[in-house]
Design brief:
alpha/beta; 7-stranded mixed β-sheet; 6-stranded mixed β-sheet; 16 helices; 23 strands; globular
C-alpha cells in the first residue's frame, strides 16, 4: 500500500485521522506513489491555533536571529539540492535538469530572506515640527497562508514561507494535492535548521480545506499561484473575509521576433521557452509573433522542435517530462484538435506521442501551429502544454497592439538587434515582466515577480521588497520630549548591578 503523506502541525509530522484520501500518482506511469489526506476540520484548526500561538513569541525574536535561521536553512537546501530535485522529479515527472532549476530558484529566495534586516528598516524624519520627530517601523501581521500549485513544488512554496517567516510571521502551507512530497521534505529541512515549533504548519486537502483557510478569522494573508478561475475565486473569497490577498493567475506569454534578430538565438530560445517543463509554467512562451520577414524562420523552428521529445525524469536525452495528469493531457489534446478544426496549420503534431517503457504516461509531443488567428481557442486559452502558436504581423506596432489586447500580462519578450525597437517595446507593452533577447524574464528575488492585468489579482507581488511589504504593516510614531524634563545637577548617577 502506498505511504500516506503526513501533516506537519506544531513541529510534528503526524498521520491524519481523516477518512478522505487522494491518490498521488507518478505522471510518467500513473501509478499511485502516495496517499494524501484531506485534513479534518479539527486538524485545520490545530494548525491555525498553533501558528497563532507561535506568532506571539516568534514576532519578538530579533530580526538578525530570524535571518540566521534562513542562512542555516539555505545551507541545508544546498546540501540536499540533488536529493530534493530527485524527489521533485518523481512526483512531478520533470526531467532532472528542470527539477534542479526548480529547487535552485527556491534557494535563491531563501537567500534573499536571509537579507531580511535591510528590508525591515523603517524611516525617520527629525524635527517634523519643533522638537517633534516622526519615524516608522515595520511589523509582522500574524498568521499567513500559502496555497501552491503542482508545477513548481519547491520554488513556489519557497517564494512564500521563508520571507513571511523571516518578516516575523507564522505560516500555514497548503501544497497542491498532486505534488505534496517535496513540501514535506522542505519542512523536514526547515525543522532541522532550527525553526521553532509552530512557525510553519502544513495541511492538505482540496476545496473545502482551502475555504477553511480563506474564511478563518485568524489568518491575515493568502498567497496563491494557480489557474485563472481559481485565482479569481481565491481573491474574491479572501478579500470578502478581509484578508490581504496576492493571487497569481494564468498567462498567454508572447515572444516578438523582429527581422533583425539573430535567427539561431530566436529558434533555440523559442524551443526551450515553449516546450521546456512540458509547457507547464506560467512564464512559458506560448505565442511567437513574427514581424515582417521573420516569418520565413517558421520552417527552421519546426525542424528544431521536431528534434525535442519527452521522456522519463532520469533520461538524459529527454527534453521535458510528462504532463501532470490524465485530465491535463486530455485538455491539451482537446485544444490541439480544436486548433486544427478552426483552421490553424498544424506544422508539428504531438498528439500521438509515446515514450518507450512508459505506455501509461501523460505524454504530449512538441506541437507547432502557424496561420493562427486571435479568435482561435489555441490563442485565447492558456494551453499549459508543449504547444507553440505562431502569429504573423507586419510591424512592431502591430505586435505591441496584439500583445496589449490580450487579457493576460504575466511575461513577454522581444528578440531584436535594434535598441530603439527594444526601448519602444519595453516602454509601451502592458505586461509586468519583459525580456529583451531573454525568453523567460523571471526576475531574481531581490526584484519582485510582477505579473499584470489578468495574470495577477492583488497589489503587492511575490518575493523581493514587495513581498516583505505584503507580509508586514507599517506603524508610524510621532514623539515629543521636553527639555524641562531632562535631569540636571550632581545627583545624576548610574546604578550598576
Amino acid at each position: 500500500m502506498a505511504k500516506s503523506v503526513p501533516l506537519f502541525i506544531n513541529g510534528e509530522f503526524r498521520e491524519s485521522k481523516t477518512s478522505e484520501w487522494v491518490d498521488v500518482t507518478n505522471p510518467a506511469t500513473n501509478k499511485v506513489i502516495a496517499r494524501l489526506p484531506c485534513s479534518t476540520p479539527d486538524e485545520m484548526q490545530q494548525a491555525v491555533d498553533g501558528a497563532l500561538s507561535a506568532f506571539k513569541t516568534w514576532k519578538e525574536v530579533a530580526v538578525p536571529e530570524r535571518a540566521r535561521l534562513m542562512l542555516r536553512y539555505q545551507h541545508l537546501l544546498k546540501e540536499h539540492h540533488d536529493e530534493l530535485a530527485t524527489l521533485l522529479s518523481k512526483e512531478t515527472g520533470k526531467i532532472i535538469l528542470d527539477a534542479k532549476g526548480d529547487v535552485w530558484r527556491g534557494i535563491e529566495v531563501v537567500e534573499q530572506a536571509a537579507n531580511i534586516a535591510s528590508n525591515m528598516m523603517g524611516e525617520v524624519v527629525e524635527n517634523v515640527a519643533t522638537d517633534i520627530d516622526t519615524f516608522s517601523v515595520i511589523q509582522p501581521l500574524g498568521v499567513c497562508c500559502g496555497i501552491t500549485p503542482f508545477n513548481f513544488p519547491a520554488m513556489i512554496p519557497l517564494w512564500m514561507f521563508p520571507i513571511a517567516i523571516a518578516s516575523g510571521n507564522t505560516f500555514i502551507l497548503k501544497p497542491s494535492e498532486q505534488v505534496p512530497l517535496t513540501s514535506i521534505r522542505l519542512a523536514e529541512l526547515f525543522k532541522e535548521a532550527g525553526a521553532p515549533e509552530g512557525v510553519l504548519q502544513i495541511v492538505h486537502g482540496r476545496k473545502s480545506e482551502v475555504d477553511f483557510l480563506l474564511e478563518h478569522k485568524d489568518i491575515q494573508t493568502i498567497s496563491f499561484v494557480g489557474s485563472v478561475s481559481v485565482a479569481q475565486y481565491i481573491y474574491q473569497q479572501g478579500t470578502q473575509h478581509f484578508k490581504r490577498v496576492q493571487a497569481f493567475a494564468g498567462a498567454k506569454n508572447h515572444m516578438v521576433v523582429m527581422p533583425d534578430a539573430n535567427k539561431e538565438q530566436v529558434v533555440s530560445n523559442l524551443v526551450g521557452a515553449s516546450v521546456g517543463a512540458a509547457g507547464q509554467r506560467c512564464m512559458a512562451i506560448s505565442v511567437a509573433v513574427f514581424v515582417g520577414d521573420s516569418k520565413a524562420w517558421i520552417p527552421d523552428l519546426k525542424q528544431a522542435m521536431s528534434k525535442v521529445g519527452p521522456g522519463a525524469w532520469d533520461d538524459d536525452d529527454a527534453g521535458y517530462g510528462p504532463l501532470i495528469s490524465k485530465p491535463a493531457k486530455e485538455r491539451v489534446l482537446r485544444l490541439i484538435a480544436e486548433g486544427k478544426a478552426q483552421g490553424a496549420a498544424c506544422e508539428l503534431d504531438g498528439s500521438e506521442c509515446s515514450v518507450e517503457g512508459y505506455p501509461d504516461g501523460n505524454w504530449v509531443g512538441p506541437t507547432l501551429f502557424s496561420n493562427v488567428s486571435t479568435d482561435m481557442s489555441i490563442y485565447t486559452e492558456e494551453i499549459f502544454g508543449p504547444v507553440l502558436v505562431c502569429i504573423e504581423v507586419d510591424t512592431l506596432q502591430d505586435a505591441i497592439d496584439l500583445v496589449n489586447r490580450n487579457p493576460y500580462g504575466n511575461g513577454t519578450s522581444i528578440f531584436t538587434a535594434n535598441g530603439g525597437a527594444a526601448r519602444k517595446y519595453q516602454h509601451e507593452i502592458q505586461v509586468g515582466q519583459v525580456g529583451v533577447n531573454v525568453p523567460i524574464p523571471v526576475p531574481l528575488p531581490f526584484f519582485s515577480f510582477t505579473g499584470w492585468r489578468g495574470s495577477f489579482y492583488g497589489d503587492l507581488h511575490a518575493y523581493g521588497k514587495q513581498a516583505v511589504r505584503f507580509y508586514t504593516e507599517t506603524k508610524t510614531v510621532t514623539q515629543r520630549w521636553f527639555d524641562d524634563d531632562i535631569p540636571t545637577g550632581p545627583n545624576m548617577t548610574i546604578q550598576l548591578r
